[in-house]
Amino acid sequence: MPHDTPLITTIAVGLGLAFIFGLMAHRLRLPLIAGYLMAGVVIGPFTPGFVANQELAGELAELGVILLMFGVGLHFSPRDLLAVRAVAVPGALGQIAVALLAGLALAVGLGWGVGAGLVFGLSLSVASTVVMLRALQARGMVKDERGRIAVGWLIVEDLVMVVVLVLIPPLAGLMGGVAIPVEDGAAEVARLGIGPIGATLLITAVKVCGFVGLMLVFGSKLIPWLLHYVALTKQRELFRLSVLAIALGVAVGSATFFGVSFALGAFFAGMVMAGSSLSAQAMKDTLPLRDAFAVLFFVSVGMLFDPSVLWTQPLAVIAVVAIVVGVKAVTAYGLTRAMGHGEATALTLAASLAQIGEFSFILVAMGVDLAILPEAARDLVVAAALVSILMNPLLFWMADRRMAAA
Questions:
Q1: 3-state class of 47 per DSSP?
Q2: Which of 72, 85, 209, 355 is most exposed, with minimal Cβ within 10 Å?
Q3: pLDDT in tens, 26-73
Q4: d(CA 240, CA 248)
């Protein structure tokens, strides 16, 4: 090549193949995420042909995570959650607990240990926001009772995962991974008799609380004011730029000054911005860029997948898929019925939640990076995500048939 441009090449090839495989997935009436993941598999190191720059793809994926979490925060509505809290909160927590125990049992059976099993089980417990919302939108269910319960259930799962992302790094050493070095302040706190792990958790909690407090007290006033000020200029370009600058600035600032993850910072930036009357416009204006980097995030996940796991560990793959598609669906159905809701609501929730996606990839990647999980766990999670996402339309079709026959 006349110019060495790995960043441009990675973006161009990644988006180009994502478009091709995404179009094929659409033609086959499959979720687009399946196509994006397959595009990553094709340009990954485990398949022949062109291999994209994995380091650059990882950084692009981080941008994708920031914008995905920013979108989750923008969509977060305490009012919507409170309206369905009676079923969404206990249902989501119950399903997370069952999936966690099933994943833990499988991980221990594979010889990974309890710490790895906890992270692995959590990665199997949370459904994909993108897959579920698009499935509900295609059926016009987002605004009816079934859709509102499903969205509220998913919000609870997402909130639990946000907390988990904060807690895993300081607990990595205890879970069998790489222990985070104890800071000077934590070393002083440890002398109070709570030990280095307790001290690290306490320091982490103080930092997180400091960041959350700052965002809720000052951010909730400053960010909406800034959006309104920029909106008065009537320059759409500046408004879009301000939204992206806030999302990325808060994410990077939270990591730099408070030591919390990009994901948590971006989530709170979106949640605070959701309180502004301009949040709908902010969501609309940032959607194209968010979608583009979300695509690159899924492509980068596909690049990490080693397809050989399908024939070297077929029983493990089947077991993981059974947890995601079978255990989660049955649990959602049973819990919903036990809380007094009808067959249609229970079937909709069972079909909606029987898949995994964004948070699963983020969690398992963190587990591998911290040496809590073996790389085989990432392959199993990506394989389960591919299979469950491909099966999701079939599950909805079966649920529709069952409801029509009832």
A1: coil
A2: 209
A3: 898 888 888 998 999 999 888 888 888 878 887 888 888 788 878 878
A4: 12
Distance separating alpha carbons of residues 292 and 156, to the nearest angstrom: 26
Q: How confident is the model at residue 324 (pLDDT cuts 50, 70, 90)?
A: very high
Secondary structure of residue 286 in the 3-state scheme: helix
HSE of 23, CA atoms in CB hemisphere, 13 A: 5
What pTM does this model have? 0.82
Amino acid occupying residue 76: F
In whole angstroms, how far apart are CA 21 and each of 33, 42, 196, 277?
9, 10, 48, 37
Residues in Cβ contact with 82 at an 8 Å cutoff, skipping those fewer than 6 apart = none
Residue 225: CB atoms within 10 Å: 11
Q: Give which of 88, 131, 155, 176 is closest to 361, Cα–Cα.
A: 131
Please provide the size of the chain in residues.
Answer: 406
pLDDT tens figures, 7-29: 888 889 999 999 999 999 989 88
Cα–Cα distance list, 14 to 47, 96, 262, 324, 381 (Å): 15, 33, 23, 28, 21
Task: Give ∠ CA 133-137-139 in degrees, rounded to 5.
Answer: 125
Characterize 313-342 residue by residue with b for buried, 16 or more Cβ atoms within 10 angstroms of its Cβ, and e for exposed.
beebbebbbebbbebbbebbbbbbbebebe
Helix pair 32-42, 279-303: axis angle to 10 deg: 40
pLDDT at 68: 80
How far is residue 149's CA from residue 276's CA, in Å, rounded to a whole number? 24
Percent helix, strand, coil in the chain, to 5, is: 80, 0, 20
| Residue 329 and residue 353 in contact, taking contact as beta carbons nearer than 8 Å | yes
Note the pLDDT tens digit of each residue in 160-178: 888 888 888 888 888 888 7
Query: Which of 139-148, 220-229, 248-257, 343-352 is least confident?
Result: 139-148
The 10 Å CB-count burial string (b at 16+, else e) for 251-287 is: beebbeebbbbbbbbbbbbbbbbbebebbebbbebbe
**Residue among 345, 335, 380 nearest 121 (CA):** 380
